[in-house]
Amino acid sequence: MSMPKRLGWGLLLAPLAACATVAPSPAPSVNPPAGMRYLYGSGEGAAISAQAWNALLAYVSARVKARPADSVVLADGASLAAPRFVPCGDKPFAAVFDVDETVMLNTGYEYHDAKTGKGFDDAAWDAWEKTGEGAVGPVPGADQGLAALRGLGVTVIFNTNRSAANADATVRAIKAAGLGDAVHGQTLYLSGDDAMGSRKDGRRATIAARYCVIAMGGDQLGDFSDLFNAGPLNAEKAVPARRVATLQPPVAGLWGNGWFVMPNPVYGSGLKGGFDDIFPMDKRWAPPAIGEK
Which among 226, 267, 236 is positioned nearest to 80, based on CA atoms? Predict the structure, then answer.
């Protein structure tokens, strides 16, 4: 909407606004949201992350010795029902990771979010990408895990939807979190590197053309394939269908066997859905009325 139109509506509605009662903004919670407590503060959250990294390292160690014929990146034209993978040939090994809440915790930004109660804001996130390097940390196990991968001769590559315009700042943040060095266009791929926006398949294809990708890690299904967010799986009521898609063979066999998910109860596609999406009609319960058995 243009600025003149916005001013015009404001003048038109001003008399009505003067008569209306303005509801106060909800006060931020005294405590951080439950998901933030779990991910950024709890021992349980740390343990499940460490567990994932232990499993990933064991898997990669075995694959390095076995020299797989195929990578774990879906080939062009593959589907979730009939997956095919990019061949490895004699390409060097790599492991590909999302950044935010996969290898790096955005603790400072989430503190700001929790204290203000404003929710996600594009401008605030852009400022965070540019200036937040002093308030990040590694996902539990990620710093040691990435170092161990490099020790195995596996190139660590980051594929994140942080902005390419902020590449230098993201390189600094990755370094500050203890996750090692990253070079934009070589071991760091960002939103804006191609014409696909936040979709990552194009960047994955670029990486898989150069490397035998033997493991991928992420906190969202889109960190593994854009197919999880395509067609009917991108519909408003797609929550149950996306859950089914993760469990259908042969996709179900990839979790912990090339594809490794890190916990994120704070934001993302995993937090969608209403009552009808989450609670099937045949699995609902209410306590019986007094006197009933």
Answer: 226
H runs (alpha helix) in the chain = 3-19, 34-36, 43-66, 107-116, 122-131, 142-151, 167-176, 201-210, 239-247, 275-278
Q: Note whether 113 and 278 are within 8 A (CB).
A: no
Expressed as residue numbers, the domain containing 120 is 34-264
d(CA 36, CA 106): 11
The pLDDT mean for the chain works out to: 91
* Number of domains, the chain: 1
Whether the model pTM is above 0.85: yes
pLDDT over threshold 80, residue 208: yes
Residue 292 domain flag: no
Q: Is residue 242 part of a domain?
A: yes
The answer to the question of residue 277 being in a domain is no
Q: Which residues contact 230 (CB under 8 A, 6 or more apart)?
A: none
In a domain, 274, yes or no: no
